[in-house]
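Example record for the data management plan.
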Amino acid sequence: MQMLIRGWMMYDLTSSPLMVTMVTAAMMMPMLFLSLVGGALADRVDRKMITLVSDVTLLASFIALFAISAAGAMAPWHIIAISVINGIAFSMAISARQALISGLVHREQLRTAIGLSATTYNTAQIIGPAIAGAILPFLGPTWALGVSALVVLPALFLYASLKPVHQPNSSHAQGSIIENIRAGLSYAYNNSTLRFLMLGTMVMILTVGPFQSLMPVFAEDVFKVGAGGLSVLLLFAGVGALAGSISVVIIDDKIDHQKLELVFGLLASASLAAFALSPWFALSILLVSVTAFASTGFMVVNMTVVQVMSPDYIRGRVVSVRFLVIGLMPFGAITTGALAETHGAPIAVAVVAAVGALGFAGVQIVSRVFAPQSGNSDPPSRG
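Corresponding structural encoding:
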């Protein structure tokens, strides 16, 4: 919700597609530097406490941005600065938040629990903006910020009430933080399946992933439907995301995850390119729903397999490597935004989507041709 509202406010302040994508970049960039540290902490420190501290920080920053807007003092740098603070808090806790699941369920329930968690996480990334888009025309951006801040409160109470059955064995995470990080990177690299999953995530994040950051531009300049039209686009994206997530949970492990990722990746790329070039708003509504369906399905499959493939003692660090890859999204968003500045948003998004389709096919080829025989070897347990 916050990211959509901030993007709308930024476009209102600057009329620049590039500055709109900078909001996403400011939020995601800290992952490049801090997600690995957060992953190491998740294997050493109480995961519940890390999550609570992060959410309190997020709530405080949301209230600060609301107050600035209510005072009529909003400037682009305020939005960027708060987004950076959010990115730091998010990066330090996201691995703990995900790895916490293994302490809440029995081993035989882990795959389903991880799938459901990934479903809620990825669906919220699209449903949240859809809700924000729906309330923007009625409340305006300032009060929309206030509503989105209130949504954090139930999460705080829910996390505080959690009673993990067990904590990770921190004896496997002794030594310095640097040694812990190195062990996590080594484990992810030496496992060919995890390496394939990270490459697939990279393609999705750099190509299809940034499409939401330009939704205000499409609504305002391409389709000329304003905030009301934006809310419709994002509402249908939310419906598609929910359907994609549920479909993955239903499929479970009946279909090989590599085949699923290829199908979802190619479908996401094709539907996004078609959305970008569509001359009709009604058709674009359908296409954005398909894009959200496929991209969310891809990410849920990916996250589920990453967690299931990782032992609990190092799960936080392996998950952090995946979020390090997700931290590359600013490069995709800024590239798409820069292309939109010079060639227009439709051409920019269509070109990047086409590159994504080639990338998904390339990852499949690389994973099959160059997979080493020792791909499933574990790193040393120390660190």
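Summary line stored alongside the record: Residues 2-166+174-369 form a domain with the Growth Hormone; Chain: A; fold (CATH 1.20.1250.20).
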